[in-house]
Input
Amino acid sequence: MPTINKIIRTKRKTIALIVESNGDLIIRAPKRATKREINALVKKHADWIVEKQDEVRKEQEAFTPRQFAEGEEFYFLGKSYALQYTGAKKSTLRLWGEKLQVARSVQEKPERVIEQWYKKEARQIFTERVNFYAEKYGFEYNKLKLSSAKRRWGSCSSIGNINLTWRLVMAPPEIIDYVVVHELCHLREQNHSKAFWAQVGAIMPNYKARRKWLKENGRRFSW
Ligand SMILES: [Zn+2]
Output
């Protein structure tokens, strides 16, 4: 059962369940409503409450500007790492357990160090994945380019360039693969016709679930 954060007694006649923008569950109840009645109602609507809390939390995550503060969450290949500043002397960054460690003494701003690191990883990982699918399924592309787009994960140009935003490297590997396959298929079909999706489906039969996942969760990778 979801946790009740606060019960507000008022003169109202019915019990109301309110999910606040921070995810807290607030109950507005008549003075005479018993704890048991309130609990029963919360239990009955538990699915709705959890769904709503999830929704508002995701929303908040997406709209909170990055502070690059200690403990802030950063995604890499679908896993989340908490930012931790270390005393290392060199300008370094490493993943250590569940931490993203950045040397405190770096002269550059941490956001630059982190962005550069993401870009380097993205280039390496995307190159490997694009080449894997291109070779396996006989696609010929011109160049792989990194973009910094926040909403557009990838695109395919008329001269055969595959463009992928470096932010995509925050997503799980199977989602990166979906975007890679999607863009490669645009080399053959420059639209989202049935023929296009048939190509994607032939390579990746479960692409619909991955596409849906990216639609629902992609915002958290757009810092
Ligand atoms: Zn497309």
